[in-house]
Design a protein that fits this description.
Helix content is 61%, strand content 22%. By secondary structure, the chain is an alpha+beta fold. Strands 1-2-3 form a three-stranded antiparallel sheet. Helix 2 runs antiparallel to helix 3. The termini are far apart.
Length: 124
């Protein structure tokens, strides 16, 4: 009996030393999840802004190409600038080579500037 008491006593000591380890692991895991969430939310919020800038670039290039081809009156790059502004962006660069227009637009989202380029013209 004396021998069995010692085994029970030593096993109780081993169990007592591990108490709370699961709680520490859960707290560490929750901290990691919170940190990942805090980092990913701003990054994922930029995805719709990037799509909006790409749409503004496409619209500006199409407007410039339509003006260059004579479908609309005006100066191609001025028309592209107005189309970009109507879509919440600003025209950075505009070149017209024959009937093909290439534009670059940008928009500020938070602390970052998102830039996109597009090209439009007649079908080949």
């Amino acid at each position: 009996m004396i021998g069995s008491r010692r085994i029970v006593a030593s096993s109780r000591r081993a169990v007592t030393g591990d108490r709370g380890a699961g709680s520490v692991l859960v707290v560490a895991l929750l901290g990691a999840v919170f940190t990942m969430t805090a980092v990913l939310i701003p990054v994922l919020a930029l995805l719709p802004a990037n799509q909006a800038v790409q749409g503004a670039a496409d619209a500006a290039a199409l407007a410039a190409a339509d003006t260059a081809s004579g479908l609309q009156p005006g100066v191609p790059c001025d028309t592209a600038g107005r189309a970009a502004e109507l879509n919440g962006a600003r025209l950075g660069a505009c070149t017209v080579d024959g009937l093909i227009a290439t534009v670059t637009v940008s928009r500020t989202a938070g602390l970052l500037t998102i830039q996109s380029s597009a090209r439009a013209g007649p079908a080949p």
